Amino acid sequence: MDQFKVESGTVQETLMMPLYGRVYCEEHFPNTFPNRAAKEAAKHVEYDFRKVESSELNMITWGLRARMLQDAAKGYLKKHPHATIINLGCGLDLSFEEVDNGTCKFINMDLPDVIEAREKIVICREREWNLAGDLMDFSWMERIQQEPYNVKVSDGVFIISGGVLMYFHEEQMKQFFLALAKAFPGGGICFDGENKSGVRKSNKVVQKTGNGTKIWFAIDDSKELFAAWGNSFINVKEYPIPSYLLKNREVPMKWKFVLSLGIKLGMVKIIEVTFR
Question: Which residue ranges form the domains of the chain, and what is each CATH number?
């Protein structure tokens, strides 16, 4: 694949920051946050990544989120080896290489302009497809069961979504999760979120810098929230800080402490939900 030039102010440029974060983690913390595919994809992009350099903490946060979502998908595939993994709001995330067990399917879903940009930079592998659509247009849940995807719900469907769902209102998310549970019984989802304190802090940063979108969906108690939405949800859990992060020597101690505290206080959450 030839190099693709990313112009300033385009949708392609908005994808560069998380891509750079994953490349940074692969280069500096390869045993903790492996992401060889991201580093390979970056080689095909003509772009000055210095424009999107961020703090090391932000880089590690992106790396940790990606790995925790990948680990949740791997856990589901151990029980459902022929399942389909759907990466909602995928951007240029390249998780398929990290979770592929040789038999699963993988669908990258995002808005049409993002998928258009993705297809200019990344080539799909065998058993991998891109899907352009709006996650709140629930027709995609039926579309993936048709050509060319041919997803079999009976084989299992597991969704991962990072940095997406928190930007919707709670009522929208209620309808979204209920639709997922109806469409994919026995499936599940793993996503990131924040409690009310985390949302307030994040929105203050957005207001101060103007760099970002306001967060609406806050989750204080995930079990309580999903129980209030009905009996379609089981095994609701929030992940603790991974032991591999605490035990390794790659990541600086100060960032381990900050991330551990954030997860302990609920300001950073990775939540997994199983559909009945």
Answer: 79-275 (3.40.50.150)
